C-alpha cells in the first residue's frame, strides 16, 4: 500500500462518524496539505451516500477551510442531504480534537454520482498543454535542501515543472500567472479517482509565477472530478487572470497519461504581492 493510500484510509462508519489519521509526511510548513483533507472529506461523503443505496463517486465539491490541521487523529461526520437516481448530495465536517474539544478543520458540500456514467461519452474537452516530457522538466528535488526539508510533502511527490514556467525557482518569475508540469507519487501510487481532490491542490501555488513566494491560503475551493485517471503521470496546468485586493483565483486542470481531462478546480486564495510587478 502506498503512503497516499495510507493517509486516505478511513475506518468503517460508526454512529455516523468515520475516522482517519493524518501523518506528518503531508505537512506544508506546520499544517497538513488541504488537498489531503478534501480527498478524505470526498471519500467520507461517497461512503455515506453509497451505504444508503446511492452512488459512490464525488464528482463535484466545495470546501471551506476553517482552521489549520495537524498530524494526528481526524474525525469525519458526513450527512446525506439527498439521494437521487443519478445524483446525490452530501456534506461533511472534518474535525480534530484540540485540548479535549472538537475543532472543525474543513466543511465540504459534494455531489455524488457514478463516474462510469458521467465520464462518457466525451463530446469536447480541453487539450493538454504542449510541454516537454517529465524527463526534460525540472524536478522539485532540485530546490534548495532547506526548502525541501521544511515541506514534508515534497518528499512524497515527484513533481516536474515545465522549464518555461519554472523561473520562480531561480528568482525570475515570468509574471504570466501560469505553472505547468507533471506529478506522480514517489512510491508509484496508481492514479485513481480518490486522489484527485488532493492532486488539485498538490502543486506549488500559481502566485509563485507572479513573484509572490509566500503562503497563499485558500478562501474557497471548488473541484470537479471528471473521470478515473489512467495509470502513469498526471499533467497539471495552473493559471490565474485576476489578482486584486490581496486575492487571486487559481484555476487547475489535470490530464491523465492519455490526455484525458480527469479533474478541474477553481479556488479563491489570499496572496501578498511584491511591491512591484516582476520585470
From TrEMBL:
<dbReference type="InterPro" id="IPR049450">
    <property type="entry name" value="ACOT8-like_C"/>
</dbReference>
<feature type="domain" description="Acyl-CoA thioesterase-like N-terminal HotDog">
    <location>
        <begin position="23"/>
        <end position="110"/>
    </location>
</feature>
<dbReference type="InterPro" id="IPR052389">
    <property type="entry name" value="Sec_Metab_Biosynth-Assoc"/>
</dbReference>
<dbReference type="Pfam" id="PF13622">
    <property type="entry name" value="4HBT_3"/>
</dbReference>
<dbReference type="InterPro" id="IPR029069">
    <property type="entry name" value="HotDog_dom_sf"/>
</dbReference>
<dbReference type="InterPro" id="IPR049449">
    <property type="entry name" value="TesB_ACOT8-like_N"/>
</dbReference>
<protein>
    <recommendedName>
        <fullName>TesB-like acyl-CoA thioesterase 3</fullName>
    </recommendedName>
</protein>
<dbReference type="InterPro" id="IPR042171">
    <property type="entry name" value="Acyl-CoA_hotdog"/>
</dbReference>
<feature type="domain" description="Acyl-CoA thioesterase-like C-terminal">
    <location>
        <begin position="134"/>
        <end position="270"/>
    </location>
</feature>
<dbReference type="Pfam" id="PF20789">
    <property type="entry name" value="4HBT_3C"/>
</dbReference>
Amino acid at each position: 500500500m502506498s503512503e497516499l493510500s495510507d493517509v486516505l484510509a478511513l475506518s468503517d462508519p460508526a454512529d455516523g462518524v468515520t475516522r482517519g489519521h493524518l501523518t506528518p509526511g503531508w505537512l506544508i510548513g506546520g499544517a497538513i496539505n488541504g488537498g489531503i483533507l478534501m480527498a478524505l472529506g470526498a471519500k467520507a461523503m461517497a461512503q455515506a451516500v453509497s451505504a444508503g443505496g446511492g452512488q459512490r463517486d464525488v464528482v463535484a465539491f466545495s470546501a471551506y477551510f476553517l482552521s489549520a490541521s495537524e498530524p494526528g487523529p481526524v474525525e469525519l461526520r458526513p450527512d446525506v442531504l439527498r439521494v437521487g437516481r443519478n445524483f446525490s448530495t452530501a456534506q461533511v465536517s472534518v474535525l480534530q480534537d484540540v485540548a479535549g474539544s472538537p475543532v472543525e478543520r474543513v466543511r465540504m458540500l459534494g455531489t455524488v454520482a457514478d463516474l462510469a456514467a458521467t465520464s462518457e461519452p466525451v463530446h469536447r474537452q480541453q487539450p493538454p498543454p504542449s510541454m516537454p516530457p517529465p524527463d526534460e522538466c525540472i524536478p522539485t528535488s532540485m530546490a534548495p535542501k532547506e526548502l525541501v526539508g521544511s515541506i514534508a510533502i515534497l518528499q512524497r511527490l515527484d513533481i516536474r515543472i515545465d522549464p518555461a514556467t519554472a523561473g520562480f525557482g531561480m528568482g525570475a518569475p515570468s509574471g504570466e500567472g501560469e505553472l505547468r508540469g507533471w506529478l506522480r507519487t514517489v512510491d508509484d501510487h496508481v492514479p485513481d479517482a480518490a486522489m484527485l481532490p488532493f492532486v488539485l491542490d498538490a502543486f506549488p501555488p500559481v502566485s509563485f509565477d507572479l513573484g509572490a513566494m509566500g503562503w497563499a491560503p485558500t478562501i474557497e475551493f471548488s473541484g470537479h472530478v471528471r473521470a478515473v485517471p489512467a495509470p502513469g503521470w498526471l499533467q497539471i496546468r495552473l493559471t490565474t487572470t485576476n489578482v486584486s485586493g490581496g486575492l487571486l483565483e487559481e484555476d487547475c486542470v489535470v490530464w491523465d497519461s492519455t490526455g484525458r481531462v480527469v479533474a478541474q478546480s477553481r479556488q479563491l486564495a489570499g496572496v501578498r504581492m511584491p511591491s512591484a510587478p516582476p520585470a
